[in-house]
Amino acid sequence: MEFDPVIDGWHPEPATASSGNWMTDHRARIALEGGERLQRKQWELLEQTSDRNTPAERIRIWERRHGLRLPGDANHRLIRVVAHQTDLTFDQVREEQRRRLARRNGDAAVLPTADSSKVT
To answer: What distance separates the 2 farthest-apart alpha carbons in the chain?
Structure first.
């Protein structure tokens, strides 16, 4: 039933959408949105472990997916979880922790990487 304020009464026919059945349209839209959410989650999961992304990007994707921040504590148990779920090594995650700490502390010096430690 649909209420029409102009006529001030109830009508026995339901409101219709483009297909003629608003309930079917609503269910189809919900199913489509659910499928899109699932695709987005799967894409983010692939991006979280992709070699195309830097360790920092992979960790940011992990943080966004889980609604958490990378812990600052070097011995936090979550560090190993992040490393495993992003296909990074424990040392790569620790390096990102150190980089973030240096940035927070306003350190202008760039933290050395494995390649920059070689002197030519």
So the answer is: 88
pTM above 0.85, yes or no: no
- Domain contains 3: no
For residue range 19-49, list pLDDT tens digits in order. Answer: 568 888 888 899 989 999 899 889 999 999 9
Pair of tokens at residue 76: 């936090």
List Cα–Cα distances, 56 to 60, 68, 80, 116, in angstroms: 6, 14, 15, 18
Tally of domains within the chain: 1
CA separation for the pair 115, 110 (Å, rounded): 13
Residue 7 located in a structural domain: no
CB 62 within 8 A of CB 47: no
User: What number of CA atoms fall less than 13 Å from residue 106's CA on the CB side?
Assistant: 0
Distance between CA atoms of 83 and 93, rounded to whole angstroms? 6
Assess contact for 90 and 79: CB atoms under 8 A: yes
As separate numbers, helices (DSSP H) first and strands (DSSP E) second, the chain gives 4, 2
